[in-house]
Amino acid sequence: MRSVVLNEYSNSSVKMIRESGDQSSPIWLLVNSRYPNDVFDIWTPILYEIQDRVYRKLHGRIDRGRIYIMYASSNIGRVSIPSKPLPAEAATEIVELRKSVLQHQPKLLITFGTITNELVRRVFDQQAEDGPNYWKTTNLEDEFQRSIMNFDINRTNWIPLIRKVKGRKSLQDWEESERYFREAAINIADKIIEHKDSLNLWI
Q1: What domain of life (predicted)?
Q2: Which of 39, 49, 108, 155 is the most exposed place for a label (fewest CB within 10 A)?
Q3: Does 41 fall in a domain?
């Protein structure tokens, strides 16, 4: 896969590329290609909080331009039918992603929503507790907490984020989104801080 550097996560530039950043980065993002703005809408506020916490604790900053971002196919078939064969493009993508993960060994593989989470489950050949139907928003929250609790710097840690936190139509919705971003960021930042000497991601 080619490697391009994207210095800023913006709505216009995200739609024009297939991947960005550096595959040797310990942080990978897997984004549904149908929703490229998730990088801007979800990851950017989370990264802002991570950078703030990291700076306060370590007086250092993460090189955001090196974070590897892949825009994955959303065509993995109906998630609710595990026995249905995958489309050829998605099956090929899973094989390629598995090879890339094994080759580069990212420490944090972050997904957005149910589709990219299901894609990574298939990459790792793991079964959900109740099959693919398990991947609902509430269960993604549980899986996030489980991934943080079982974080192991010696392997790739699969960290699912919720793609939608609610339509932000009211002040309460905005506050809930902000609270989610902050809590997710604190959990991720604390693992980065804990393993700072094993992560090559600093400016």
Answers
A1: Bacteria
A2: 155
A3: yes
Any domain includes 1: no
Which residues neighbour 94 within 8 Å (Cβ) at sequence distance 6 or greater? 86, 119, 122, 123
Residue 72 parent element (H or E): strand 68-72
Residue position matching structure tokens 């490697």: 3
| 3-state SS class at 30 | strand
Global pTM value: 0.81
Residue type, 201: L
Query: CA separation (Å) from 60 to 51, 105, 183, 186, 190?
Result: 8, 23, 20, 16, 14
Q: Report yes or no on 4 lying in a domain.
A: no
> Which residue range(s) make up the domain with 79?
11-198
What is the tens place of the pLDDT at every residue in 152-164? 999 999 999 987 6
Q: What b/e string do you get for 38-68 counting C-beta neighbours within 10 Å, with b at 16 or more? A: bbbbbbbbbbebbbebbeeeeeeebebebbb
